[in-house]
Specification:
seven-stranded mixed β-sheet; mainly beta; 11 strands; 0% helix; globular
Amino acid sequence: QVQLVESGGGSVQAGGSLRLSCAASGYTYSSACMGWFRQAPGKEREGVAVIDTRGSTIYADSVKGRFAISRDNAKNTLYLQLSSLKPEDTAMYYCAARLSCSGAYLFPWKYMYWGQGTQVTVSS
């Protein structure tokens, strides 16, 4: 079955960096659109960055220039490099997969499979 396991979250001060990883299994990883989403307490889940099978990416305006999504198809792993972190980036970060990849979208409802999440906390 499809499994997505995130890691790499933690607590950092504003301006710091983190690298999130998502290990995927149970499907043909290279054929899937992948994405990172986040949800802060009391807020809806939002798209952060997504990547399609060709490596094309889309970022939320709030993270452009600070976050970078990438994928390693040989390792079935998705990454999110977080830099210049701000307190408003504090949230649970989720990895998601869209197996029928006709294009990458930032909409959470487009993705069927989700990981359990990894917490990112940024202090001022």
